Amino acid sequence: MKTVIINSESYEKHITGDGHPEQPKRVVAIKEKLKKRNDLIWQKPDLVPYDILSMTHSKEYIDNLNNSFPQKGLKFLDGDTVVSPDSKKAVFEAAGSTIRAIDGIEKKEFKNAFCLTRPPGHHAEKSKAMGFCCISNAGIAMNYLISKYNYKRIACVDFDVHWGNGNYDVMRSNKNSLYISTHQYPFYPGGGTDKDKGDFNNSLNIPLPAGTSSEEYFNAFDRVLNRLVEYKPDFLLFSAGFDAHKDDPLAQFQLCSKDFYEITKRTLSATNKFTDGKVVSILEGGYDLNALAESANEHVNALIEFN
Known about the structure:
The protein has 307 residues and is of the alpha/beta class. It is built from 9 helices and 10 strands. The chain has an 8-stranded parallel β-sheet with strand order 2-1-5-10-9-6-7-8, with helices on both faces. Helix 1 links the parallel strand 1 (3-6) and strand 2. The longest helix is centred in the N-terminal third of the chain and has 20 residues, at 87-106.
């Protein structure tokens, strides 16, 4: 079986305005890189069932979000999070990419998936859009896995350079999930210390200082792997942000593109005996276009290797 890329043209029509780092060129850069390969399947997202949306976010928030998209021009949902007329389809299809990915894996159409989506999702809290994010796509995946397929132990590994406060907010009260994040600290959005353990001791946060090198990162990453082996997940999610790259303009980690292959490979090596290789990865951050495309390609290399 192969690795699938879930992608939609709508992600390129989500306009955020000139100079905004979370721009359409992000998915274009990755897509151009991956389209040169002949070892991938490409598919479109599905719709997100409303009950899954309302398990993940408050009904009031979903209703407000539905009515937040402007008829023309740009609208700011917070200081960073911008939407435009075509953003609505992109937002809900980004969440829906996880539905298609999970269903395809469960039906054995493919082994694992990379959701090449935008906007990202890991800062979107239960009742709040923030940090370029409107819906917690990983949270949608978690709730769908539990409600549709009765999974009991879902691990989400978030290696974006920013703490995924939204993922944490959505997952912290769910005893069937484990949320793990490595991130720069102190840094946006605040929080993400080792005190943020979740309601069921179901979160591991590893804050690291600006300037963290590859060696320092992987020394810390051993804690991620140890926790995963201890947890024995039956399904693995990645919140795959590539902004820990040394070339990224929004952060100060010093990872290189090949490190994202290593992060992915080590995580899969630790978990595959529990998950049987069932993995859905969802694009989060990454704002230097060359570094983003290279790093995402390295991530996909590891996903393919574990088919």
